[in-house]
User: Fold these one by one.
Assistant:
Number 1:
Amino acid sequence: MKKRLDHTESLSTLGQLAASIAHEIRNPMTSLKGFTQLLFTTANDEGKRYLSVINDEINRMEEILTEFLEVSKPTTHIFTKFEIKNLIQEVVNFMAPQALMQNINATINFEVDHTRKILGDRNLLKQVFINSIKNAIEAMSHGGNIYINISDMRDKPYVCISIEDQGYGIEEKVLERIFDPFFTTKAYGTGLGLSHINKVIGEHGGNIEVSSTVGKGTTFKFYLPLHNGNKPILTI
Ligand code: ADP
Ligand code: MG
């Protein structure tokens, strides 16, 4: 199954409002955390057990808020010209320890001229590929391979970065929602990774395709416009 995406603004005005609420919630949470820790020092064993559950839950709420604020904050894009190959290599090196711990091997295959450049915000795109590989790792609880392929599109000035995993795959009903903010199938997921990825790729004039087979694995293909010396950025 396959899904092609339009560029949609994943975080709307409502999202901005949610961001300011998230920000406001942070202060009372800090005070909750402080008092929980204070109570811990005087509580008996039973009380300590309950308080540590409260503490864990507060930490979890903080994590969600931090990730949400990270995604929704207005970012100034710093566009530079850079080689996509180096960026992907950096991401793979960065993720290697986490992958190794789960018996996962990530290999990169370059089908394109190594000096091919794109114009974009390097940090934002780096986050895109980190999040995508993180999702691949999280889908492969039994280990396996992640194949990353960088190729050209024959008829268009785009580079295609595909990330293929051997994870549990995505059911059709789930596939329709994976880019929605806060949609997650994971017990401890935030559901913000793919909505951010979609936003960033859209802002770069790119596109995403997903194909998946349940029980076999998933492939995300990211298409990004190649930089050509004259125009700053190519649009579809
Ligand atoms: P999170 O990882 O916090 O759940 P994401 O936005 O990154 O949020 O992903 C949303 C959902 O998309 C995941 O919960 C999962 O169901 C699905 N998903 C994303 N990537 C993969 C993948 N490589 N394999 C299987 N499912 C995936
Ligand atoms: Mg994720």
Number 2:
Amino acid sequence: MTLRHFLADDDLSPTDQAEVLALAAELKAAPFSRRPLDGPHSAALIFDKPTLRSQSSFAAGIAELGGHPMLVDGRLAGIGVRESVADVARILGRQAAVIIWRTFAQADLVAMAEHAGVPVVNALTDDYHPCQILADLQTVAEHRGALAGQVFTYLGDGANNMAQSYLLGGATAGLHVRIAAPPGFHPDPAVVERAAAIAAGTGGSVTVADDLGLAEGADVLATDTWVSMGQENDGLDREAPFRPYQVDEALLGRAAADAIVLHCLPAYRGKEITAEVLDGPRAVVWDEAENRRHAQKAVIAWLLERSRDGA
Ligand code: NVA
């Protein structure tokens, strides 16, 4: 059996991602049409950081797939403290058909996947948020009618999980991904390199700069909090350098006339985005939040099927 995991966006090839997104659309139209967790099998859900959209969308989605969402309290379990990640993985892999984990270090998630014996899904780490990007791609496809060739500009903290996942997942989908971020908050160059290599094969492209001109003519504008979970006391000025990158009406005016606006939420109105834009007609953030459920159901069903087939 070949186990498939979803630890970072580029664990899915362009073909894989297209299959998952097609399944997400199918599941949105017919939510109970796939029941890979019927039994019910359990799906372990662990959150080491705050959550609203992830916990609710995974729990609802797992139930719709016929399964049981098994909430595991990371603090009670003491993952990496009371017992090693490897031992926790061995235990949960004997209880659950899939493990979904939100944590800090990507390396811990990788260790979980190495020892679980069942598919492991990244529900956000410091480095990536790939389930959110699948939902965002589904939302872009719904509102723009296509993915490949769309100009997708993200503004704000270019070093965070969302920016890095947009680079990898967006390049996989053939988007022209532009990251506009202040100096000192650019993505890891190794991630940019990986994304550029993917884009070379999909017809997409990758641009990282501190230049607000990257918003010019964009089909999609996206932003995210300037202070990600776990960075609250990192000693960096997370206000002044980001101010020019706020998504406001003026910035939106530089994008395409029919551009849409994404935000993974929670949003801080008056910081990375104005209330006018977030609550205005171009923002599609509630569709984006709903699509978490459909996209995650699709990736879970796809991973289980591939892992069973040994494909
Ligand atoms: N970059 C944000 C995403 C929240 C969904 C964070 O990590 O807090």
